[in-house]
Amino acid sequence: MKTKIKLACLSLLVISTPLFANSFKVPKDMSETDRKRFERFETFQIKGVCGDSDLARLADRGVNTVRGYTLDEPAVMRQKLDEAHRMGIKMIVSEWMPHHGDNKNHEGYVWPFDYNAKGDEMVADLMRRVEAIGDHPAILMWGLGNEVHLDEPYLRVVNRMSLAIHAKFPNQLTSLTMINAKPDDLAKIKKFAPDLDVLGIQAYSRGAVRGGIKNTEKHWGKPFYMSEFNTNGPWNFGKTPWGVELDEPVSKKVSDLKDCYVAIDESPLCLGSTVFVWGHYPSGDRPTYFGLLLDSNPEGQKETGSFAHLLTTPQADVMTEHFTGRPILGNRAPVLSKLEFDGGAKSRLAQPGEPLPLDLAAEDSNGDPVEFVTWILKAKTKKVTNFAGPFSQPSGENAVVNAPTTPGEYLVMVYAFDNKGGASGSVLNFKVPEPVVATPAATESNAKKD
User: Fold this and answer.
1) Which of 45, 125, 256, 325 could bridge 19 with an S-S bond, Cβ 3.0-4.6 Å?
2) 226 pLDDT tier (thresholds 50, 70, 90)
């Protein structure tokens, strides 16, 4: 079976999004102090990403805000802020904070934390660094924890931190981030951390984004932003017959991301967004999902901290056109528009060593030739674990990969490259079952039948 290629020279459409699409107005019932903190957002919308690296490329793509996750020591943090300021980029400077009670690290180690006992120390240590960093012009707001469980002891410490920041720097904003926007959780924050200025809502899927916005408007009633969002998370995907999540088509991710931005712009209390994530998210089960960039060498072995090897995806192009309000005139990433096993299957069982034909198609709006490259990855690993590949699948040639001879669960990962810095990718699931071993009783029974 021949690989199917679709190179579509699509005409550039006029982007309907204006250069400044924010609908935020300072609420009339705000105090004079609060009004001063929020006045900037009447002419400034957060057009941001999660991740604070690669600032030059971000600035070229219309990004004006980056959100970090860890508060460095003052000397390092000021260097980052100075660089952002030179680029015209604001920073959401965030303090990482643990859960109250048990915490678990990536290796499964569980350790306890008590905000009641540690609160004084935490507030003092934060303010030591906040005061040393100062009222830097690149600071957009302070983030006090990321997706921390909303227990009362945590929220009370957050409120103390917010009060301390405001006492030292009255015009600086304070925030925390939360998963989705459940009314009960919003009520807890209002009760135990009333000094907070802004909530960051983390939601994945167009429905979750719209639902989060609706709940926050109704039950928080103050300014907020979408601090993490993207299209469907793997927990919302369809599953294989053996219960493993499938990936979603690149074209669906593109259309859903566009809808998320529309919902964000429509909200009168939403200050903007920071999409997750600027970079390549190296998840073994879903290596093509979270990142707006793809790793040109997903097996690793590249310079730590470098972004030069990362390729732009169609999702990054959606962000760019939305933030700039105009079509991209240069290169656009190709869209991997079709990825199936022969016959249209999204997953399959395979015999050891069996050839697996693939049906591939891509669209490139610049009319560039598209090259497909495939890998076979081990499934259920924390990081990308390559089993075989890369295998080049040029235009017009058969696309086939061979199943491993070792039983297990695997992914076929496919990239569509334009060789100009753009790519898109997705995965298919397959499984090589363990061989069926006949039991002595079954063998004896079959012999009697014969």
Assistant:
1) 325
2) very high
Q: Which helix (H) or strand (E) holds 307?
A: none
Query: Could you tell me if 412 and 376 are in contact, meaning their C-beta atoms sit under 8 angstroms apart?
Result: yes
The two beta strands, 371-378 and 386-393, are antiparallel
| 268 and 141 fall within a common domain | yes
**pLDDT of 12 higher than 70:** no
Give the pLDDT score at 18.
45
Judge contact between 423 and 313, C-beta under 8 A. Answer: yes
Predicted confidence at residue 330, as pLDDT, reads 94
DSSP code of residue 379 = S
DSSP structure string for 141-154 = EEEEEES----HHH
Is 156 in a helix, a strand, or coil? helix
Domain span holding position 384? 335-432
Distance, CA of 173 to CA of 180 (rounded, Å): 21
In a domain, 442, yes or no: no
Are 179 and 256 contained in the same domain? yes
Asked if residue 402 is part of any domain, the answer here is yes
Inter-residue contact 275 to 316 (CB < 8 Å): no
Peptide bond before residue 183 is cis, with ω within 30 degrees of 0: no
Which strand ranges, in their side-by-side order, compose the sheet holding 400-402? 335-341, 355-363, 400-402
**Number of domains the chain contains:** 2
Q: How confident is the model at residue 302 (pLDDT cuts 50, 70, 90)?
A: low
Residues 40-50: what's their mean pLDDT? 97
CATH value at residue 382: 2.60.40.10
The model's confidence at residue 284, banded by pLDDT at 50, 70 and 90, is confident
3-class secondary-structure state, position 402: strand
Q: 154 and 88 share a domain? A: yes
- Taking the C-alpha atoms of residue 101 and residue 181, their distance in angstroms, rounded to an integer, is 22
Q: Which amino acid is at 266?
A: E
CA distance 347 to 289: 17
Query: 99 and 224: one domain?
Result: yes
177 and 227 in contact (C-beta within 8 Å)? yes
Do the domain assignments include residue 441? Answer: no
Q: Which residue did the predictor score with more confidence, 262 or 7? A: 262
Torsion sign (Cα): 129, 130, 135, 139: positive
Does one domain contain both 378 and 264?
no
Which H helix or E strand runs over 250?
helix 250-266
Say how far apart CA 32 and CA 26 lie, in whole Å.
11
DSSP-assigned letter for residue 422 = B
pTM here is 0.91
8 A C-beta contact, residue 188 and residue 155: yes
Residue 281, token pair as written in the block = 């998210």
Residue 201 placed within a domain? yes
